[in-house]
């Protein structure tokens, strides 16, 4: 991920493990959006990978993991469904992981530099003419960039020989070309991303993009070496590559690392692939990456600078975190002025002082962190004696400083409010609105959101009558919440999506959840005693908030899981279950026979849920009968991909949905006396 100069401090290993699943989901969603939609990342590939890997370890079914890539809002062209998935590469940062990967197959390995650019697919027809170009996008669906790609001189518009093939590779900007634009853009990748998204093809032409092919589909080669030879014969310019034995991977990595500064393009690692296609087929794919390839990412650049100040911020948990302000220094082409200090204990461990000369590293290529003191400074770094937000007392818990009263601390309260709004999906309640409402005494806890009146909202800056009414409709629509959503929204440590779902499945009432013991929770799959203890303690401490929320919201019923992990017997469940209880439906396309909101109300009456998007957990995608001539929607394409990967969801027509709904309606009606 390229850097833009303004950055957030990435968590240490201790801090990473301390994040709840909800916090991990929020961080992955935020940084995915910054990278793909805004082209303005603030952390590195390395630290983003750490967040994704930790979330995948603790909540492998998290919906955000299935949605990595550009969002619908970040799209810039018509959707293109890839003929085969354009998967991401698995990544590693140490020799042991690389060697373990190479031990899984036989034969030689192709090593190529990993260009820091934009992955793209080029399709050529049987005459050898370029007919379609697309970005990688989600891996299943990309954006049509054909018009812009036709302006790139490095891409053949007609192949040297007529053949229907697909070429995949990296769009990038040479360093020598970027030199003319470096005052306008942070780095070559940002410029390349902006150029390929441009609505004006001639503007894209002016930036002089290049293309490096790395794969050829539809031509029947037996090895990666043969693919590259065929690409060169077709008229593509190749980047340097090596064919090495499996015990020569470290030497290949060292070779490209040594070349890095002399190359006319930016690279952030080395890609290794099993050379034999037969071995690739044997190894296969995961839902996210091929098993036959891996990217060994470079570790960060380092440079000394001077520590000017330490700033402190308060998280919603009350933890007070330090960030170093340093004299600006250039690392890997980006100017660094702030760096992570992890926690208060880290300052003491380094013996840090203001004016000190410190070593700052961009780990994984981008994230800045203070590593050590090169020469001591002359002024002490004073730890805050009171909370930098509310001025209240500070507690020391091991290496961490914490506000003693986060429930009365402005920054902590605003963090809790923002977290609640994000989890419950309250649109329009951004940081500025929440901050203004807090300043005017209208908000002190998430329960206060539901007590806002039209008159309250009209007191806020830039809130007129239309916006006030829209916000009130949002609140009204979120007064009915699934139990697992409300549990996640509480912001309790370790009570993320996975644990919340388990609690909602096994203990269907909130009262029963509040009485859960550490032993009961630890007995559930993948929880364990440490997480269980934190969740139970958090539920006890959140009792006042829970009482206040239960006075404002209504919890939706959910099917209970029986003792063996399956659905509870209907007789035992009694009236808690509707005929479609536990089932989830998403709609795509226009319904002809009824309004979508009416269909959602009917489903809710039958006990079903209607989440916002398609995920592995979805039961049914209903395809509306209207607009039959329209191209497949992104929801439908994603559902088809998930089906192909073995997901349980069913794609049904509007008529099939109506029949299912009618049958459920009959099941709900009592028998005639």
Secondary-structure blueprint of this entry?
Elements: H1 13-18, H2 21-36, H3 45-58, E1 79-81, E2 90-92, H4 95-102, E3 109-115, E4 118-124, E5 130-135, E6 141-143, H5 146-149, E7 165-172, H6 175-178, H7 188-197, H8 201-207, E8 210-217, H9 224-234, E9 242-244, H10 249-259, E10 267-274, H11 277-283, E11 293-297, E12 302-314, E13 319-331, E14 334-340, H12 344-350, E15 353-354, E16 357-363, E17 367-375, E18 379-380, E19 394-397, E20 400-403, H13 410-424, H14 431-439, H15 446-449, H16 454-458, H17 465-477, E21 480-482, H18 483-489, H19 497-506, H20 510-514, H21 518-522, H22 529-541, H23 543-550, E22 554-556, H24 570-573, E23 585-588, H25 596-605, E24 620-623, H26 634-644, E25 650-653, H27 654-668
Parallel strand pairs: 2-11, 21-22, 23-24, 24-25
Antiparallel strand pairs: 1-6, 3-9, 3-10, 4-5, 4-7, 7-8, 10-11, 12-13, 12-16, 13-14, 13-20, 15-18, 16-17, 19-20
Helix pairs in contact: 2-3, 7-8, 13-14, 13-18, 18-19
Question: What does this 3D model show about the protein?
Answer:
The protein is α+β, with helices and mostly antiparallel strands. The protein has 5 domains: 13-72 and 300-403, Nucleic acid-binding proteins (OB fold (Dihydrolipoamide Acetyltransferase, E2P)), CATH 2.40.50.140; 79-297, 2-Layer Sandwich (D-amino Acid Aminotransferase, Chain A, domain 1); 409-478, DNA polymerase, domain 1; 481-575, 5' to 3' exonuclease, C-terminal subdomain (DNA polymerase, domain 1, Orthogonal Bundle); 579-668, 3-Layer(aba) Sandwich (Rossmann fold), CATH 3.40.50. It has 27 helices and 25 strands. Strand 4 and strand 5 form a beta hairpin. It is globular. Residues 1-10, 559-577 and 668-673 have low confidence and may be disordered.
């Amino acid at each position: 991920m390229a850097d833009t100069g303004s950055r957030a401090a990435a968590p240490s290993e201790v801090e990473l493990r301390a994040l709840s699943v909800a916090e991990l989901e929020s961080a992955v969603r935020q940084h995915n959006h910054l990278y793909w939609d805004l082209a303005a990342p603030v952390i590195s590939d390395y630290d983003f990978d750490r967040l994704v890997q930790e979330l995948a370890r603790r909540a492998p079914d998290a919906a955000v993991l299935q949605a990595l890539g550009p969002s619908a809002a970040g799209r810039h062209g018509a959707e293109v469904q890839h003929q085969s998935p354009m998967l991401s590469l698995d990544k590693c940062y140490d020799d042991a992981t690389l060697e373990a990967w190479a031990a899984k197959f036989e034969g030689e390995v192709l090593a190529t530099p990993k260009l820091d650019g934009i992955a793209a697919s080029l399709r050529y027809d049987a005459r050898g003419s370029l007919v379609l170009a697309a970005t990688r996008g989600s891996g299943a669906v990309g954006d049509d960039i054909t018009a812009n790609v036709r302006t790139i001189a490095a891409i053949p518009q007609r192949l040297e020989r007529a053949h229907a093939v697909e070429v995949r590779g990296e769009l990038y900007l040479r360093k020598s070309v970027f030199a003319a634009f470096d005052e306008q853009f942070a780095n070559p990748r940002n410029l390349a991303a902006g150029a390929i998204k441009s609505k004006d093809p001639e503007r894209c032409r002016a930036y002089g993009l290049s293309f490096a092919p790395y794969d050829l589909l539809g031509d029947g080669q037996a090895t990666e070496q043969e693919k590259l030879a065929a690409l060169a014969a077709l008229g593509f310019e190749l980047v340097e590559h090596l064919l090495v034995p499996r015990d020569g991977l470290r030497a290949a990595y060292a070779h490209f690392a040594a070349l890095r500064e002399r190359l006319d393009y930016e690279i952030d690692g080395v890609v290794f692939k099993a050379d034999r296609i037969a071995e690739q087929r044997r190894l296969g794919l995961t839902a996210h990456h091929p098993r036959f390839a891996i990217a060994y990412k470079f570790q960060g650049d380092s440079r000394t600078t001077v520590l000017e100040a330490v700033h402190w911020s308060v998280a919603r948990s009350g933890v007070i975190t330090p960030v170093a302000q340093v004299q600006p220094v250039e690392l890997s082409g980006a100017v660094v002025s702030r760096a992570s200090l992890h926690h208060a204990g880290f300052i003491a461990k380094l013996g840090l002082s203001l004016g000190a000369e410190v070593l700052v590293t961009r780990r994984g290529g981008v994230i800045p962190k203070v590593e050590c003191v090169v020469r001591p400074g002359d002024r002490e770094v004073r730890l805050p004696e009171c909370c930098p937000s509310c001025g209240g007392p500070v507690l020391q818990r091991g290496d961490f400083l914490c506000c003693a009263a986060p429930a009365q601390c402005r920054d902590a309260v605003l963090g809790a409010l923002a977290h609640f709004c994000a989890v419950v999906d309250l649109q329009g309640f951004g940081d500025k609105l929440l901050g203004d409402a807090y300043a005017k005494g209208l908000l002190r806890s998430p329960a206060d959101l539901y007590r806002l009146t039209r008159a309250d909202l009209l007191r806020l800056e830039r809130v007129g009558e239309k916006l006030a009414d829209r916000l009130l409709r949002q609140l009204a629509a979120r007064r009915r919440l699934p139990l697992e959503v409300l549990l996640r929204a509480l912001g309790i440590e370790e009570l993320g999506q996975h644990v919340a779902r388990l609690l909602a499945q096994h203990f269907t009432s909130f009262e029963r959840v509040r009485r859960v013991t550490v032993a009961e929770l630890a007995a559930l799959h993948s929880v364990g005693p440490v997480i269980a203890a934190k969740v139970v303690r958090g539920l006890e401490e959140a009792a006042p908030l829970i009482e206040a929320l239960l006075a404002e919201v209504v919890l939706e019923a959910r099917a209970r899981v029986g003792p063996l992990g399956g659905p509870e017997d209907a007789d035992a469940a009694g009236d808690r279950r509707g005929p479609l209880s536990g089932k989830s439906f998403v709609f795509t396309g226009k319904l002809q026979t009824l309004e979508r909101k009416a269909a959602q109300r009917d489903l809710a009456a039958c006990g079903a849920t209607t989440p916002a998007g398609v995920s592995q957990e979805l039961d049914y995608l209903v395809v509306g009968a209207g607009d039959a001539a329209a191209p497949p929607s992104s929801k439908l394409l994603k559902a088809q991909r998930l089906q192909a990967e073995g997901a349980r969801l069913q794609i049904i027509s509007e008529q099939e949905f109506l029949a299912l709904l009618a049958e459920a309606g009959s099941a709900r009606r009592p028998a005639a006396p």
